[in-house]
Every structure is written in C-alpha cells, then in structure tokens.
Design goal:
Elements: H1 12-18, H2 20-24, H3 28-39, E1 44-45, H4 46-53, H5 57-67, E2 73-76, E3 82-85, H6 90-108
Antiparallel strand pairs: 1-3, 2-3
Helix pairs in contact: 3-4, 4-5
Length: 111
C-alpha cells in the first residue's frame, strides 16, 4: 500500500477532499447501502436495498453509482439487476472490519 501524500496543516482541507475514504462515505445513504449488502444473504435489487435500508429508490441508485469507482460491488446485469458486496475484495474486508469495530466501540466502549 502506498503512503499517503504529505501535507501541511494548511492543506488538510484539500487533502480531505481528495481522500478516498471521504468519497466512499460521503453520506449516510452510501453507508446504509453497504451495511445492507454486508448483511444480505443474497444479491439484492435496488428496490430491495432501498426497502431494507429505509431509503428511497432514487437515493439508493445514486449511492450504488457512487460506489462503482471503488469496485466493491458485484453487479448482475440480468433482467433484475442485482447487487452484492464483492467479499473477495480486500477493501470490502477492510470496510467490514472498520464497521464492526466502530459499532462495537459505539455500543460496548473501547477495548
């Protein structure tokens, strides 16, 4: 893994704007879509993701499109387009670990 670019404190805003983590989790909808797909036992349509995540379908589709550059989803282009997280992807595993750690700390306190 490459080292992040060095930046002066004055440049932090620009660095944050270019940071992949910020782009990945730019809003709550993307996080809800990812969490829904993490816990789904099978690939889901956008409508099913929206229903399970409690968000409207257009926001769900927008979030799915925003996740595409990260290549963390498996998309079946069949008659009912379905989505699943690519569990073989290293970033997906890292996101899952981060989500579990954050949830544990929120509800159980730090280790």
């Amino acid at each position: 893994m490459s080292e992040p670019p060095e930046a002066r404190l004055e440049d932090v805003t620009a660095l944050v704007d270019r940071n992949g983590l910020v782009a990945l989790f730019a809003n709550r909808v993307r996080a809800r879509v990812l969490v829904t797909l993490f816990y789904a036992g099978e690939p889901l349509t956008a409508a099913a993701i929206a229903d399970h995540a409690g968000i409207n379908r257009s926001d769900t589709i927008e979030a799915l499109e925003a996740l595409e550059p990260f290549d963390v989803l498996e998309v079946d282009e069949g008659p009912d387009r379905t989505y699943a997280v690519d569990r073989s992807d290293e970033l997906v595993e890292d996101i899952r670990t981060l989500a579990e750690s954050a949830t544990n700390r929120l509800y159980d306190g730090p280790d």
